[in-house]
């Protein structure tokens, strides 16, 4: 383990977020328009990105730092009955897409998280969202993979290490929360 090298990689990933500032503003505007139009935000991803999807949805329905009305945000990664039945009956690739076939409406927004941009179940969710007239935002890494061109608004943290990309994704999610609540003290 080379902590200094990892910290250097972390700093590089965090600095890459600064280049994404215009896209982060666009994502905040899209989420705002979704809520103002009566829509919902869905989030999905695998592994650490599943945790990030849940983290973000919890901060929108609960709160980030300030008291304010909750926003309708749902992580597609939390219902083990849905995940196991859809996975068992239709295949793991459909676990998020099938939920959107049931829940997603035109005007809703999907936040798709994938550090590689290659996860088939996240790609299927984006395709399902697009079919229903939903907006799609991608929190991606490396070169964004096929998801970079599949989503309406790609935010690509252009470094290679999965962990470092996830650390930058968490920062982006918190910046999006700040767009709804103002800057932290
Ligand atoms: O958290 C980590 C690594 O930091 C892992 O659980 C990681 O999220 C998993 O390998 C995922 O399956 C990776 O998927 P993706 O980011 O390529 O879409
Ligand atoms: Zn991890």
UniProtKB/TrEMBL annotation:
* Binding, Zn(2+): 55, 59, 166, 174
Tell me where in or outside the cell this protein is found.
Answer: Cytoplasm
UniProt cross-references to Gene3D superfamilies, sorted A to Z: Glucose-6-phosphate isomerase like protein, domain 1
State the Gene Ontology BP annotations. carbohydrate metabolic process; D-glycero-D-manno-heptose 7-phosphate biosynthetic process
Q: Which reaction does it catalyse?
A: 2 D-sedoheptulose 7-phosphate = D-glycero-alpha-D-manno-heptose 7-phosphate + D-glycero-beta-D-manno-heptose 7-phosphate
On subunit structure and binding partners, the annotation says: Homotetramer.
Q: What else is known?
A: The reaction produces a racemic mixture of D-glycero-alpha-D-manno-heptose 7-phosphate and D-glycero-beta-D-manno-heptose 7-phosphate.
The name of this protein is: Phosphoheptose isomerase
Name the source organism: Thiohalospira halophila DSM 15071
What lineage does UniProt assign to this protein's organism?
Bacteria, Pseudomonadati, Pseudomonadota, Gammaproteobacteria, Thiohalospirales
């Amino acid at each position: 383990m080379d902590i200094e090298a990892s910290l250097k990689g972390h700093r590089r990933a965090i600095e890459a977020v600064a280049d994404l500032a215009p896209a982060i503003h666009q994502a905040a505007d899209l989420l705002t328009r979704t809520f103002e139009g009566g829509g919902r935000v869905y989030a999905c991803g695998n592994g650490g990105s599943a945790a990030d999807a849940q983290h973000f949805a919890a901060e929108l329905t609960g709160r980030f730092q300030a008291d304010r009305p909750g926003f309708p945000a749902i992580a597609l990664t939390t219902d083990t009955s849905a995940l196991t039945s859809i996975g068992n009956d239709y295949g793991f690739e459909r676990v998020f897409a099938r939920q959107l076939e049931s829940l997603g409406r035109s005007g809703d927004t999907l936040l798709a998280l994938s550090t590689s941009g290659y996860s088939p179940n996240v790609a299927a969710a984006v395709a399902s969202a697009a079919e229903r007239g939903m907006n799609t935002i991608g929190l991606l890494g490396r070169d964004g993979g096929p998801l970079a061109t599949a989503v309406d608004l790609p935010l690509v943290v252009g470094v290679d290490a999965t962990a470092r990309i996830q650390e930058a994704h968490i920062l982006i999610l918190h910046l999006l929360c700040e767009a709804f609540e103002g800057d932290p003290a």
